[in-house]
């Protein structure tokens, strides 16, 4: 299915702190996420604009495996084909320790797709590494806002995201809110995965 998100980048920790303060009445929960990415030795996924991710939540209380492909981001709106499902966290950790196990995990629909559609099964997988993310979730004016502090090995970025079927309307509302509270922002031009792969902050 297609995932459509508004993505606005915040320029500093001060802007992130200011936004978290003005959104605090709408706060619902905060997740600590660990994101790890995988590909084949010959990069069959990334060469086809696809990414395989294991995302662990809150000290491994939950893990979600996702396969994303055909990403497009323009004017602060991201569109990507995404398939995801929950996976047993202990099983997922075993795959992190030995990525070759990903090629034999028949219980996962997403991993079967990665093998069958991208031909990953015969090569096996390797772990590319990843990044950590602190995600605060807010319910604001009928929108689910996710405020991210993403910690890469080479620095930290800040972003607000909103998954929505009406991206232009949501973007307009969020922009008005940010401007009304004097919070600087710009349109995100690349995904977190692209930032991770580039090895430098945007």
From TrEMBL:
GO molecular function: pyrophosphatase activity
Residue span(s) of domain CYTH: 1-200
Region forming the signal peptide: none
Pfam families documented for this protein: CYTH (PF01928)
InterPro entries per UniProt: CYTH-like_dom_sf, CYTH_domain
Name of the protein: CYTH domain-containing protein
Organism: Stephania japonica
């Amino acid at each position: 299915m297609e995932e459509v998100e508004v993505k606005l980048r915040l320029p500093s920790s001060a802007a992130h702190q200011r936004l978290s303060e003005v959104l605090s009445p709408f706060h619902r929960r905060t997740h600590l996420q660990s994101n790890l990415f995988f590909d084949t030795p010959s990069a069959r996924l990334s060469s086809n604009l696809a990414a395989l991710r294991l995302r662990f939540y809150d000290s491994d209380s939950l893990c979600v495996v996702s396969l994303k492909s055909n990403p497009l981001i323009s004017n602060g709106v991201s569109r990507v084909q995404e398939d995801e499902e929950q996976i047993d966290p202990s099983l997922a950790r075993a795959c992190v320790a030995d990525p070759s196990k990903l090629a034999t995990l028949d219980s996962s629909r997403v991993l079967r797709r990665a093998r069958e559609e991208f031909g990953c099964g015969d090569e096996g997988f390797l772990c590319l590494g990843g990044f950590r993310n602190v995600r605060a979730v807010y319910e604001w004016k009928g929108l689910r806002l996710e405020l991210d502090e993403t910690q890469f090995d080479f620095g930290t970025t800040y972003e607000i995201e909103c998954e929505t079927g009406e991206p232009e309307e949501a973007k307009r509302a969020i922009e008005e809110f940010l401007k009304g509270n004097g919070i600087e922002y710009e349109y995100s031009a690349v995904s977190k995965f692209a930032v991770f792969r580039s090895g430098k902050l945007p």
